[in-house]
Amino acid sequence: MGKPSVSVCSAVSATEAFSVYVHAPFCARRCVYCDFAVTVQSEGDLDGWVQGLRSEIALIEQENLFVLADQLETLYVGGGTPSLLGPKAMSKLAGVIGSQRLTSQDLEWTAEANPESFSSEVAEEWRAVGVNRISLGAQTFDAAALRWMGRLHGVEGPIKAIEGARGCGIENVSIDLIFGLPIHIGRSWEDDLRRVIDLDVPHISIYGLTVEPGTHLGQEVRQGREPAVDEDQYRKEFLMAAEALTASGYRHYEVSNFARPGFESRHNTAYWSGNPYLGLGNSAHSFAPPVRRWNLHSWEHYRAAVGASKSPEADREILDESASRLERVWLDLRTIDGIPRPVEGTPQDRLARDWIERGLAAWIGDRCVLTPEGWLMLDQLAVEYETSALG
Ligand code: SF4
What we know:
The chain is an alpha/beta fold. The protein has 14 helices and 19 strands. A nine-stranded mixed beta sheet has the order 11-12-10-9-8-7-6-2-13, sandwiched between helices. A three-stranded antiparallel beta sheet has the order 14-15-16, with no helix packed on it. The N terminus is likely disordered. Iron/sulfur cluster binds next to loops.
């Protein structure tokens, strides 16, 4: 998937994007912990969103950094809450990207949805236009925890949403769950894992709660009304999920992701493989090696920029050799494919053996792969490995 390749039609070659991310910034309410690029309004601004994306694509065609592939391999619509944009959102998006680019039999087209806005009408119309994977923000099946987070759906919401997806032929459903919630809420992580396993979806993602300074939760923690994240509980819950989901037949194929065989997210795999990708919409990131760039964070600033035919790019970085190497190690270590077995006797080999002795990694064939214990220390281990290579 996502083969790095270049167009040879122009004097300066542009990177061909086989994987495209589109940001849908609208949410009906902001969750207490959320620091994503979100605009709170009761309904998504579908016309404004489509107009913004159309203007951005026109700008991209002029600048010659990217060219959209004739056939996309993956399209991921994330947010925010894409389902807040309603049933017509995906057909309008297809009109902007070009329906002819979305006809490959192998296209993985994912759209994120929240249970309260993923009606059967939304499911049917999205399916009809080609969406074949839904990523559902369930987070928990505990009513008190949903209220604490500020979520708008109830405990039964994800169950109905999955029925709606399956009812119109979308079997490929992923569920997001959050762990590490404060103990005082009384949420049982064990119960949530049992419930998600019972739903028998082919893909599950788990994310640990983080307290970001600019969020409502960040403020509550600063003022002592909420506790900071309990590291022990975080660790215990991550390991409990790894064990329970693996025992139920899911493959823990990346730090946060579990899949039945054949249902791994191909879009995210493109990111982890270091393939190029194009991001559209406010706050979206794009990668045309060695250039990484990202768009203006706020929807209002993004819309004003593209509306005036100005690039919405906020900034970019060019990865030098050492940054690229560290990133490669970090990306490799986060997946079940791990890093190639180092040459025997080298400092990297000694380090890998030390990880294995400490239960942080294992040899799988000719690869060194982190265990769930190792994944809890991913950032540190990637830096250690890269530093050891420097002698
Ligand atoms: S639904 Fe997701 S994007 Fe929207 S506010 Fe909640 S966490 Fe943020």
